[in-house]
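Quick one: co-fold with nicotinamide-adenine-dinucleotide.
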Amino acid sequence: MHIKRPLVAVSTDISTFNLKSTSCLFFLSETSMGLIAENLRKAREIALGDSRVPEELKHYLQEALDVAVGLDPYLDAMATSKQTTSLEGRQLNVKGVEPKVKPHKECTSGYLKGQVLRMFVHMVGAKRILLIGSLKGYSILAMVEALPDDGKITVCAAEPYLGVKSQEAFDYSSHVKKISVKVGSIADTLEELAVVGDHFDIVFIDADQRNPVNVYNFVMDNHLLRMDGVICVENTLMKGQVYLENVSDENVLAVRKLNKVINSDPRVEQVILPVQGGLSVVRRSRASADGMIESKVLVKDHVFWGYNRCRILDRLRLDGKVAYVTGGGQGIGRAFAHALGEAGAKVAIVDLVLAKAEIVADELSLKGIKSMAMAADVSKPEDVQRILNAIVARWGTVHVACNNAGINMNSASEDTSLEEWDKTFNVNLRGLFLCCQAAGRIMLKQGYGKIINTASMASLIVPHPQKQLAYNASKAGVVKLTQTLGTEWIDRGVRVNCISPGIVDTPLIHSEDLKPLVQRWLRDIPAGKLAQVTDLQAAVVYLASEASDYITGHNLVIEGGQSLW
Ligand code: NAD
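Sure, here it is.
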């Protein structure tokens, strides 16, 4: 590709706008509305100095001026400031020197755009961002802050000050490890990125360069933007010049051409927002594949498009689903509840101890997940029926039943009391059966459901040196029950599977008797560590989702390899 001129690297920094809010003329004149305001101001001055102009006309001019002048500062003022302390008062100037005084917020051209870009990073869930051309330091830092710890911004900069010095300028930031600056020809840098097969969630292009169309085409043709990714193009309104007649400025004509090219590109959808110099948001659409593959022989089937047009991660989502988790008040059940909720389900937390269930339900609510807490002893049929009735009354049905409550009591087999045996079996097997049956009846009626039981690695091996006959036998029973129901109900839309964790670091194993055994157990675990509850979360989401519809009666063992040694 040929980009004739290096990107114009005139990124005036916010720290140079340290004016009072009433005189942010420079700031205003960057935007279309600023230009309107300037012209209205001149018209008003002429009108005020001319006695022939009717008072009514002066009044209308004043009203229009007030609205025009007020808009941009108001948008800036209303954009929530969420800077972390690392950025507070530490805006950059062009030399990378940290100014001592924080610029007045209303005058910080770039502030609003920075906030908008930060929103995009959150909304897209971006991890990798490519910046091509100049961008104000504030905008880069706003995006960097919104990136997760393993996120990365690659900055392609033609001019040294945007390269070396910018990198120096970023060095103070705790987020600096996320920024990588590549100085040199933009075309060469893009070629390099394409060769190594990099692709990005958001690509930021500054339109203010001689041939932005080449940059745009290169990004699209070489798949630097991932499918469903977003391109943001800055400066696409050029203070309104792009849509005015009789414009001869070369840069304006280049941006006008870019807007048209994007608008007529079947691979993308575009919207231009009047944010500062104009911000185009360009989304690469899935249908774009049609345009990309004309010359190739490709099979456009479920594999290509995704089953039911859903790509694999979307197929794991549980939006609109109703789930419950027994023993959800702590440990594995709590982690299951969070995972199902994060995947989109409403979740009822069921536990013997209401207070524990309520805390977890509150945690979910804080994350915007619909939840409810209920007390129940799963070994009692009336309790089980009550919770299912309550869930159906509140949310209409149950799609995902997570029967997880369980207890473990240790004793040598010759000493195991009938009481211990019954207690263990009542919770671990009878309770689980009651839940499967009650939830299963609802699911069979609606022809759809996912039951996920918590068994244990103890169903496969005999964990030692602790003695736990009743537990081991009850968990083997859970696996057989799962296999039986899984085959009996599959043809009526109900899948029944179980998860068998190895030794998981939860309160269940924190008893005084078991704690000293941890070092002994570690020697038996190829993974060299105990499982964490988070190690089990993806499994429950998978088994709850439609992505696992062909799996039934399965015992999904997650034990770091322990059962294989
Ligand atoms: P945990 O003891 O930390 O939590 C269990 C929860 O279940 C508690 O909140 C408890 O109040 C609740 N509960 C107990 N009896 C109940 C009943 N009758 N009705 C309703 N709720 C009841 O246990 P955990 O480690 O999170 O284990 C959860 C499940 O995972 C259990 O079935 C357990 O057997 C199984 N498991 C645990 C491990 C492990 O190493 N922690 C390993 C394999 C399997």
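If it helps, The two ends are 57 Å apart (CA to CA).
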